[in-house]
């Protein structure tokens, strides 16, 4: 396949940035999208040019590091997958592909296609955990009965990989889907009840301080989420927040 790539290049956070055109002449449909970028980068390095910086780690849809906005969609045109799981067979010979970073005020560009998503880490630090007694008298987790339905819903929420596609897809750059998944995975389980009120209050406060926008129920986040995190989690987080607010 012959492809024209239009890629966002930005030397640093201070640089203004611009789209730059590249040509690739021998792309296999069996390549992953990131392998295609590897080929481009080898070409750039061979010519003495600066390779395109992009995030990746596991390359199998688990870590949430890859984060490209491809032809106007977070993680590209396929559904239920991350950028690293996207294959070039989704494109046609002669296509022009636009590749940009995830854009949001709370995700500043570091270089080229790499954005700083440490705002997500700070939200997690604010409350996305449970405190466990590790004194030696810890109760085996399996000793606590949990209904199958609650366990399934908690596990579904816990599949959020923190990629940030929900933020990038949202016209308000809202992080509600991510935060609600992290709240829900504990709100649904007995182990999460002790800190439930503090968790939702602190995580929402941190979310607002990081500069994410509000949710206006458009639902783009759910459509683009590679893990199918449901909007129901946002409704659950709102209920948790209201209940915690009333408790004071
Ligand atoms: S909710 Fe989905 S899109 Fe948002 S961070 Fe989690 S996995 Fe990524
Ligand atoms: S590189 Fe880990 S999810 Fe894509």
Q: Return the string of H and E elements.
A: EEHEEEEEHHHHHHH
CATH top level label of the largest domain: Mainly Alpha
**CATH homologous superfamily descriptor of the largest domain:** Alpha-helical ferredoxin
Low-confidence stretches: none
Q: Whole-number radius of gyration?
A: 20 Å
Largest sheet: 5 strands, mixed
Fraction in beta strands = 5-15%
Count the E strands.
7
Strand order of the largest sheet: 2-1-5-3-4
- Residues in helices, as a percent range: 25-40%
Average of pLDDT? 96
Provide a concise account of the structure shown.
With 248 residues, this protein is α+β, with helices and mostly antiparallel strands.
Description:
This protein is α+β, with helices and mostly antiparallel strands. It is 35% helix and 12% strand. The strands form two sheets. It has a five-stranded mixed beta sheet with strand order 2-1-5-3-4. Strands 6-7 form a two-stranded antiparallel ribbon. The mean pLDDT is 96. Bound molecules: iron/sulfur cluster and FE2/S2 (inorganic) cluster. FE2/S2 (inorganic) cluster binds at residues 56-59, 61-66, 82-84.
Key features?
binds iron/sulfur cluster, single chain, alpha+beta, Fumarate Reductase Iron-sulfur Protein, Chain B, domain 2, binds FE2/S2 (inorganic) cluster, 248 residues, Ubiquitin-like (UB roll)
Question: How are the SSEs ordered, and which strands pair?
Answer:
Elements: E1 3-9, E2 18-24, H1 33-46, E3 68-70, E4 73-74, E5 96-101, E6 109-111, E7 114-115, H2 118-127, H3 148-158, H4 165-169, H5 176-187, H6 196-209, H7 220-224, H8 232-247
Parallel strand pairs: 1-5
Antiparallel strand pairs: 1-2, 3-4, 3-5, 6-7
The structure holds iron/sulfur cluster and FE2/S2 (inorganic) cluster (FES).
């Amino acid at each position: 396949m012959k492809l024209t790539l239009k890629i966002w290049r930005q030397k640093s956070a201070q640089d203004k940035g611009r789209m730059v055109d590249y040509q690739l002449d021998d792309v296999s449909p069996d390549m992953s999208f990131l392998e295609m970028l590897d080929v481009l980068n080898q070409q750039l390095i061979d010519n003495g040019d600066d390779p395109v910086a992009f995030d990746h780690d596991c390359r199998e849809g688990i870590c949430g590091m890859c984060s490209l906005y491809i032809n106007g969609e977070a993680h590209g045109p396929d559904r239920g997958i991350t950028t690293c799981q996207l294959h070039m067979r989704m494109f046609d010979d002669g296509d022009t592909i636009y590749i940009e970073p995830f854009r949001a005020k709370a995700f500043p560009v570091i270089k080229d296609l790499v954005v700083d998503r440490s705002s997500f880490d700070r939200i997690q630090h604010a409350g996305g955990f449970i405190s466990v007694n590790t004194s030696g008298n810890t109760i085996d987790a399996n000793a606590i009965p949990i209904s199958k339905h609650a366990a399934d819903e908690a596990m579904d929420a816990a599949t959020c990989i923190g990629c940030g596609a929900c933020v990038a897809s949202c016209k308000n750059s809202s992080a509600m889907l991510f935060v609600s998944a992290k709240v829900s995975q504990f709100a649904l389980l007995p182990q999460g009840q002790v800190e439930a009120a503090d968790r939702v209050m602190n995580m929402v406060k941190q979310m607002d301080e990081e500069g994410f926008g509000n949710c206006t129920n458009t639902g783009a986040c759910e459509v683009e989420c590679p893990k199918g995190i449901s909007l129901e989690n946002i409704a659950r987080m709102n209920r948790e927040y209201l209940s915690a607010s009333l408790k004071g």
